[in-house]
């Protein structure tokens, strides 16, 4: 089975790649493609999908916190 990837884009969306089922709280299925973007800024008119409205309006660059071997 192919592993699904969700990539946190700098100043933008969550980029989803792989075979996933996206459903709303009532269990209704959203139609998706093999690669799609989910809104992270809350500004999209196509929620839960990204429509690019975030450009110049949203600032977030998330990185994994690195843990030193001595701290484990």
Automatic annotation (TrEMBL):
Residues 25-60 form the Iron-binding zinc finger CDGSH type domain. Pfam families: zf-CDGSH. Keywords: 2Fe-2S, Iron, Iron-sulfur, Metal-binding. The keyword Cytoplasm does not apply. GO terms for cellular component: cytoplasm. Gene3D superfamilies: CDGSH iron-sulfur domain, mitoNEET-type. It comes from the Bacteria. The keyword Iron-sulfur applies. One of its GO terms (molecular function) is metal ion binding. This is CDGSH iron-sulfur domain-containing protein. It comes from Lederbergia citrea.
């Amino acid at each position: 089975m192919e592993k699904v990837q969700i990539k946190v884009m700098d100043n933008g969306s969550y980029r989803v790649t792989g075979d996933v089922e996206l459903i709303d709280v009532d269990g209704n299925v959203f139609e998706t493609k093999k690669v799609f973007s989910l809104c992270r800024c809350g500004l999209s008119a196509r929620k839960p999908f990204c429509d690019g409205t975030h450009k110049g309006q949203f600032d977030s660059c998330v990185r994994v916190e690195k843990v030193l071997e001595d701290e484990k």
